[in-house]
Amino acid sequence: MNRPILTTIVILFTAMFAIPAILVTVQAKVEPDPTAKKKAVHTAEREKVDLIIEENAAHIPVYLSEEERIVQLPLEAYVRGVVAAEMPADFHIEALKAQALAARTYIIDRVARQDFSDMVELFGEEAKEAWVSDTVQHQVFYTEDRLRENWGARYDEKISRVNQAVNETKGKVLTYDGRPIVAAFFSTSNGKTENSEDYWEAAYPYLRSVDSSWDKDAPSYKGDPVVLTIAQLAQKLEQYTGKPVAVSASTGSPDWIDVVSKTEGGNVAKVKIGDQTYTGREVREALDLRSSDFSWKIEGDRVTFQTRGYGHGVGMSQWGANLMAEEGKTAEDIVAHYYQGVRVEDYRQWVHKTDQPKSKKG
Fold it and tell me: What is the b/e burial string over 260-296, where b = at least 16 CB atoms within 10 angstroms of the residue's CB?
């Protein structure tokens, strides 16, 4: 074959493959992989994040109730243990940050008050030098060993998320009128939070009933039915309140249980059961219901209670915080919503060297 013709054929044949390859390369540069950003974020979230502890950090003496001993922990290490125990580590990072602000504020409020007398009342002389316990009487706190046991192979991933939340709020607390607040929080509302005085006795201006309609999408919004016989119901109420309920022939009538009033947050404020009147809180705690927003159905000698929400309902809803964060709200947005009129300030003005614990236990 003629050499010039052969050369032309080779060039054309090569171009058939080279040109598409060039076009693919150019196209790849113009239209990057749409999953690239997602992959990068996922990788960043899995990077190990260490907790930042300042050299002269305040220390908190914590009573470990099961071990019956006191350990002294840097403030941020304590806050981390509370956040990890009180909120799922898989929650949105902004919700975890809001929880860190609440947890740190809780302990700094106790420090500012300088009243730890409940430690002996609750746990005995062994706890007298502690400022807080690891139980629901204060804030649940988990040690690192407990977290490793709970999280197993996911420990590094989860502790990194909690560390990030604590680091990014380091040293910050919530204040109202120049003082740390009572930073109450709970799992899930019935769609609104409660005024503090509607569940407790004290009225705090920042613990007001606010909308929390996000909670209706939470898995804990609706509790499992609680079924009791009328005799069990009467017994539990009498044991808890000391007020006996008359069980008569009219027990099965529709108005044997009747709501007297409701709170601004939509929970039961007072309810008449038989010949007695109770607060919604008394009924909730006596019957171990998930919330004070309960309804019921009487069938024969049985009463079935149905609840909405989970917890006392005062302060920050944890599920509400998470769902707000998923809608793009920041930790600051979340705490400003659930704690009305608060500011975010540095904790150090309430903790001084003279405040540091003298106990060397643990």
Answer: eebbebbbbbbbebbebebbbbbbbebbebbbbbbeb
Answer yes or no: are the C-beta atoms of 109 and 339 closer than 8 Å. no
End-to-end C-alpha distance for the chain, whole angstroms: 94
Task: List CB contacts of 92: < 8 A, sequence separation 6 or more.
Answer: 322, 325, 326
- Among left, alpha and beta (phi > 0; psi -120 to 50; other), residue 220 is alpha
Cα gap 214→208, rounded to integer Å: 17
Note whether 339 and 316 are within 8 A (CB).
yes
Contact (CB, 8 A) for 147 and 161: no
Report the distance separating Cα 244 and Cα 193, nearest Å. 31
Q: What pLDDT digit, counting tens, does each position of 73-124 carry?
A: 999 999 999 999 999 999 999 999 999 999 999 999 999 999 999 999 999 9
Q: Is 243 helix (H, G, I), strand (E, B) or coil?
A: coil
Query: Given this model, what pLDDT does residue 48 score?
Result: 87
Q: What is the pTM of this model?
A: 0.82
The set of residues, in sequence order, having a beta carbon less than 8 Å from that of 307 and lying 6+ positions away, is 222, 223, 226, 289, 290, 291, 293, 294
Judge residue 62's burial from the number of C-beta atoms within 10 Å of its C-beta, 0-12 exposed, 13-18 middle, 19 or more buried: buried
Give whole-number Cα distances, 257 to 180, 263, 265, in Å.
41, 18, 21
